[in-house]
Structure formats: C-alpha cells, structure tokens
Amino acid sequence: MEDALYSSDSVENIDTLIAECKFPQDAYVLVEMLPQHLVDKQERQSLLCFARLSDGVDLARYTTGRVFDQQAELRWEKIDEGKYRVVYLGAKRELQGLKKNEKDQQELDNLERAKESKNYYLFGEYLNATKLTNMGIQPEEGYYAEVRIPRLLHYPAPAGAPRVQLKVLEYLDRDTNEVKLFRFQGLKAAE
Which residues, other chains included, contact 99 with Cβ-Cβ below 8 Å and sequence gap of 6+? Predict the structure, then answer.
C-alpha cells in the first residue's frame, strides 16, 4: 500500500506542520473549538468552521481539526497549551516531528483501500441570496440551514449545490471487510 500513517503526541506548532505537509491552498479545513466557558449566541457561530486552507483560518485557536484533500489528511487535537496530538494518513511524505509508528504502519499495510470513496450527506439545504436577505443576513455563497441545528452551516461547497456530500476513503480489513480507518477527501454537490 502506498499510503503512510504517522503520529505524534508532541507537535508544538500546528501551522508549521501543515505547511510541511504541503497541502494545496484549496485543501479543506474543518476545525472545532471546545470552550471551557458559557458561549453566547455570537460566539456559537464560530465554534465550528469549515473552510479552505487559503481562507486563512487561525488554526491554533481551535481545539481539534483536520486539513484534507484527495491525497491525505492531517488530524489534530490540542492536548496542552502549545502541544498537539496529530495523526497523518495519506500519501507518503517525509514529515519532521511525526514518526512512523511501526505497529500502526503494519496495521495499515494489512488493510486494503476501498476501490471507491463513500459519499456522506452533510446537514442542511442551500440558502440562496433571497432566503439569506429575508433572514436579514448579507448574502454570501456556501450557507446551509437545518431546522434541527440552531445555527447556520457554512460549507466551502460547489456554488449553489442544493445539498453537499463529504467524500470519505475507507481502509478495510482484508479478511472481514470491516472499516478500520478512514480519511476525508473532499466535498461534492450531492447527486
């Protein structure tokens, strides 16, 4: 298998590591903030952010996140102030600060990549300019709404896609065909 699995519990600068991974600027960024205080309505909208790497999201202010594209995914979780636990899964690259865990790599070598990516629907229906204006919101591309979720969802989706799907690549156990690992690959307009 051509993919690699790297990890570390002691990455100090997530921005530097992402730059070293050489993700393209159109790679996706999905980050979440888990605050340790009460959250007001204004702050609630920024707890989850789904964007492109080129959008300049301040990744260090979020508790967990991932950057991904068709070739690879880097996931992280802040474990202490200034320290991150990270996992990289994807195309083989030399990454300083991340080590190849032989046990994990052996497990990965015993898995088989699914032949095709799976597509999972994301919540929400597209809000066009008219709907946003009626809600008193400045029209902007990429807003979705779901009645069960008390906030607008913003996806870096194809313009005007009525619904959006997340492309996910699965890694299957060769004997049982059970999904053992997965990585996000991108977004697409729902078919």
Answer: 6, 7, 8
